[in-house]
Structures are given as C-alpha cells and as structure tokens.
Design goal:
Elements (H helix, E strand, L loop, with lengths): L1 E5 L4 E6 L8 E6 L2 E7 L5 E5 L14 E5 L2 E5 L6 E3 L24 E4 L18 E5 L3
Antiparallel strand pairs: 1-2, 1-9, 3-4, 3-10, 4-5, 6-7, 7-8
C-alpha cells in the first residue's frame, strides 16, 4: 500500500506503508516543504508540518506520539509542547514565541492501493518526483 499526502492540488505518493514503523516519524520533503509523517500503533496515519513553532527547528518528525484522553497527540522533541493531531493546536500554549497561533498545519494523508506497477527505487526515496521520505533527523 502506498502512503499519499495531498499537497493542496493533488495526492502525492511519498512512501509505502511498510516504510513507516508504528510509533515513529519520518520527514518527508514535498516540493521543498518538510512534512512530519507518522503511523501510530493503531495504524492511523498523521501528517503535520515538521517545523516546531516554538523552536523554529525542523524536528517534529522526531517527536513522541501519545494521547490526551481519546485525542492522538505529538510531543515536540525540543521544548516538549504537545500538539493535538486532530486539529494541530498546541495543548500547552496558545501562541508561539513570535506571537503567532501555536497550531501545526495538518496535511491530508491516506493509504492507497496502487494497481499500477512501479519501478524499484533506491532505499530512502519514495519513487515520486519531488517527494522523498527518510528517517527524520534533527
């Protein structure tokens, strides 16, 4: 099964479902924008901006998945703010240090069966022009 992220115009294949280790994130470069992509332990897919609004670092793919009540969450590896993965808002603070709302962009993500055969790609690439996935790095 192929994992696809909607870039605002169309669905873009970024990796296979098997490339995503449950509970761990990967950084995806989608036309110059970094996206943090996760598969939680229940199998649900989540995609948010990789940029931490509190530190400015591209590190959220290295964050920790969890929950508050029945809401899936992501804790930043930098200053440990927790974000709700259903709406992107920070559960700890309403504004980032620059005064902007502390909300992550959510990217539509899905797993899609691919009927067409694709050619093999080198390890660490997604096989789609302009989109790659690899283990997130700080």
């Amino acid at each position: 099964m192929t994992v696809e992220i909607h870039d605002g115009t169309r669905w873009r294949p970024v990796c296979t479902l098997d490339d995503l280790q449950p509970g761990r994130g990967v950084a995806v470069l989608l036309d110059g924008e970094q996206v943090a992509l996760f598969r939680d332990r229940a199998g649900a897919l989540h995609a948010v901006d990789n940029r931490d609004p509190f530190s400015g670092a591209q590190v959220l793919s290295r964050g920790l998945l969890g929950s508050r009540g029945d809401r899936p969450t992501l804790a930043s590896p930098m200053y440990k703010q927790v974000f709700d993965l259903t709406d992107g808002r920070c559960l700890d603070e309403e504004t980032a240090p620059d005064g902007s709302p502390a909300v992550l962009r959510l990217w539509p993500v899905r797993g899609a069966a691919r009927a067409a055969a694709t050619r093999p790609t080198p390890a660490g690439t997604a096989g789609a022009a302009g989109a790659t996935a690899k283990e997130g790095t700080a």
